[in-house]
Fold each of these.
Amino acid sequence: MDQHCKDILKEYHEKRDSFAMMEDIVTHILDLNIGKEGIEYAKISSRVKTEESLAGKLELKGYKYHSLDDITDIFGARVSTLYNDEVDLVAALVERLFEIDWANSVDKRKLLESDRFGYLSIHYICRIPKELYYDEKYPELNEYKFEIQVRTVLQDIWATINHDIGYKSVVEIPTEYKRTISRLAGLLEIADDEFKRFRRDISEYRNQILTLVNDGKFDDIEYNKDSFNNYLDIKPFDRLVESVASSLKAEIIPGNMEPYYEVFRVLKFKTLGDIEKMKNDYSEDAKRLSLHRMAGLELDIITSTAPIFNLVVIYILKQGYGEKSIIWLYNTLFGDKPENIIRARRVVKHAIDTNIIDEKSLNWSGPEEEQE
């Protein structure tokens, strides 16, 4: 290594801490602002070039650089997004935040011919503008350039594999293998596009479900986790819960409805209309059962799920299922406990005592066994 390169390496030693500071500052700025924009991303990775790596670069290309400031990748950061349309969103953000050296920045996506596949990434050569961050003790933080790369997770994988197979090899890769690499790159490009399309379709589906729920077209909505959550957003059980609370002169505290998703799934509800039908058919009986069970307890507070639990109990018993099914209901909602047997027996007795259920109509088996 000649003296010129040794001088650059010496400058690197003197400014190594500054580059480490730059790494912390830039990655924090990226993470903070990408989060503010609500952009999904997989990770932000970064590195400061090691002395060994820099020495190797100088031995090969030291003649190209007058000083350390000419080496633009001492520090580099990479933002890996989940979807390829978010590459452009992050890129636009980078352009707003940092000073861009456009002459040395490149969008690799625009370099490939239309019939070629390969490395797709945006590389920015940047500086930190003083209005974004400035420390008078370290003015070099605004002087040294650094690199920010933006690409998808799949392109990140592709770049790593291609670098390992191709760039690091001392033997030129035969044409047939280059063609294989190109085909694999094409598959990754298709996958990136398909993931973006899939996310768009899912978003449109969720918006459609939300519209149908708000319009009350429950029979048209397939029962699944998304539709159930949208259904809960309109608070469909409030009338029942408030009616029970009013009769008891009790306050309502919110309960957890999440476990009921599995309950309704096992009960073979196919649409939200099935839940609506259960609610419309059995709410009065559920209120009677709730008041009967809570009579004499002088409750000041009830959970919002208590009347809903009784609603489901009535539904199960009205289908002809018996005590064993109510044990299953307790286990599903509150955990598998020995005392659930006693609780189930008690609630079935309450339903019989209020003449809501005819004991002779009940069976031992339940919906959970039919599912199996």
Amino acid sequence: MKRAFTLVELLAVIVILGVIALVATPIVIDIIDDSKDSVALDEAKNLVRDIDDYCKLLNFNMKDKMNSDTTIDCENMTKDNVASMVHLGNTEVLDVDYKSNKVVRLLIKNNDRLVYYDGTDYSIKSSADINVKYTIRRSLTSTSSAWERYDNAVGKVANATKDGSSVVNDFDNIYPWSAIKSYVYDRDLNQDVADISEAKYHADGSTGDVLTRIPIFYYKRWQSNGYEYISISEFPISGYTKSDAFSVGRYTSSYADNKIRSMSGVAPAANQTMTWFRTKSEAIDKGFGQLDYHYFLIQILYLVEYADYNSQAKLGLGVSSSSTILPSGGCDSLGMKSGTLNNDGKHSMIYRGMEDIFGNIWQFIDGINLKNNVAYVCTEPEEYNVDTYTGCYKMLSYINAKANGTIKTLGYDDRYPLFSFPTETGSVINDGYRQAGGSYITLVGGRWDYGNSNGLYYYALDTGSVGLNSIGSRILRTK
């Protein structure tokens, strides 16, 4: 006769099974998680390979292998384009960028896993990772040029050198600031030659034009409950706008051998019209022009980093009390550092690889025309033209300040929040402002002898389209 288990024995078995379950469950969960991670990583790698293959086919003038009636411009690829190029299955593409014949950025979601590829490495991201945002805010009634750090920007420190010495700047290790890099572009080969850290990099123009690349980032500017906010994120967040990667001349444009150049050791080109600079800059290659609305993106990168409108106080005086325009290259030894080697007003300053972004010489900003103190803005380079107020040129909703002086407030239009022009004058922001009531173009930054008026927010809105005197330009590359 078989003996039945006693209650004690049954309880013992249950306890043992419970212990086994406690030990085994985390292991099984880890195995499942690792499997999901592995599948998502493999999917990201396959997508990068397939996108690269697709774009190589286009380079050989072959039709879209998924749809013979369409092709994709790889250099301007969007996340929505990817489904037309490769099979996605259950993978969602959240962000993608293709530059210089390769995928340099990819963010996907697969099996609830987020995988990010930065052009070199693949990594699993959490929802918290891709929702990091660096925000500043300022009361709409503030009489200070300073902003308050907010969100993930709280506690961050940003300094710029005033004498070439090392300083503490937390943003050196925060994207997108950490990924801003100068490089050499060979227009004859139509390709990048070397980044600033590589041996083939030469600032003197001997191997090509020296540009500074600003990577993709996402931004938002808004007003709410008596505050204005500006925020920057590495990844797409609902309500944020994507700034595609772009490059600007490390130096203000010079001119030699019938070519616009960006190179160290030469004087900026001047005494030419905005249209002349545009035409010469566009002649470099497809996707080139002169600096336009991207200037406002540089402004917000600076502002979120330093949290103060007073760019001279933060970055240095720049060339602001000199007797003449200085040649470029005064900040070459600073590399990608921001600041100046000598803060006496007679030496150049640099902001993250953009030398003399204010001071030394006025700079044209293309695509913006003024009429009766109202700005008309266009973001379509092929439509840029002076003295134009229709078509792609859209009128901002506010009237610019009608008195010259220093700036008190900057305007806000929720349809075009990137653009901020002075609406009141007074001693708050400290940068200068000039205006007139007719039809004009946009100059920024100030010049070699304008003293404390110079800065990233100095606007001269009183120069006609044939204005020539002491005005320069800066190369822009968007492809």
Amino acid sequence: MKYAVVLGDGMADWKIPQLGNLTCLEKARTPNFDKLCKRGEVGLCKTVPDGLKPGSDVANMAVLGFDPKKFYTGRSPLEAVSMGINLAPTDVTLRCNLVTLEGDGEYEDMVMRDYSAGDISTAEAAELINYLKKYFDGDGYTLYPGVSYRHCMVVENGKTGHDLTPPHDISDKKITHSLPKGESGVKYLRFMKRSYELLKDHPVNLKRKAEGKLPANSIWLWGEGTKPALEDFGKKRGLKGGIISAVDLVKGIGRLAGMRIIDVEGATGNYNTNFKAKAEAAADALLGGLDFVYIHMEAPDECGHHGDAEHKIYSIERIDGDVVGTLLQRFARAGKELAMLICPDHPTPVACKTHVSEPVPYLLYCTSKDICNGARRYTESEAAATGEYVADGYKLVEKLLAL
């Protein structure tokens, strides 16, 4: 048996009045999801434990089978590991977003216009981060460029316990009450304010504004943590596993778990990603020797953060057609058995533009078994109606591996 997890990040949603009081999953055309429901199990799963914030870090860790309450130490170290940063046990890492702030007054009174600086390109972002390094690196602080708006700061012999707000939690809101707090909060705020002074008239941003794009005019520090020690996936499960994702966060979890990282050309982390290429790469890996592949699509989450229902629906339809459809076709041609788990990590409702902790709908399917529990479609409401409920998210993968 081969196993695939199809993870649509942030795919679950609330009902949207403009869509006729439907969710994005309910509105989307998903013939493959619906077909699998006729033989599959649909239910709800709590992926975010009580007491932890509903981040993609916590939730993806849970879906991969790791108890976040035991292993979670922060978001940014997972990304740092994927970026190849060698972390000491005493290092503290911080996620460093390039963001767009708007306002004419004091920094503290500005508005978070865009947490991703208009999805700035990796090349543009690298130029800006490398420019800031000349001013910020030293005295135990080091900036590292990443992908698009996602970057990293490492603090030697740092401390955790600060109150740091994710920028996507305050989209279109004043940043006044969301600035860094805690022992190093003053230092972090100083970095952020200095970055605004350095970046607002940088040639990259002047060019972006001339092209009608949002400028990356500030960094935003959040997601602190120290390097975690995950169990080895292969030793824990007795399976050779792989990860397909465009984002460092998920790849970092995979690296720490000893899984193979499968890079896919055209994987962007947004709705313009190459969905089909991800599925083809997963099928190649599974039919070529791996036992388990985790296929992560960031697109629905990014659309949720931008309040973009249209492209969230589009992303769900591409996951249904280009990812699930391709996997089913490849395994049918090969005459091989496949067990599949389809789920989000957490909901990212377009109405609030951020993550929430509500349970997510899951769909379990196996080519050789009929485990249908009555759901007609793969949606939030149908999942709730079945009565199936997994209270500990990290145990959901065990249901998959038992098929």
